[in-house]
Amino acid sequence: MIQDRPNAQGGKVALYRHYDKAGNLLYVGITSRVEKRTKAHIEGSSWALDIATIEIEWIDSRKAAEHREKSAIKVAKPAFNKVHATERDMTELTSVEAIVHSLGKDRILRAFGVKARLMQLYIKKDIFPAAWFDGLEKMTGQALPRNLFTFKEVAK
Question: Is the pTM of this model over 0.85?
Answer without folding.
Answer: no
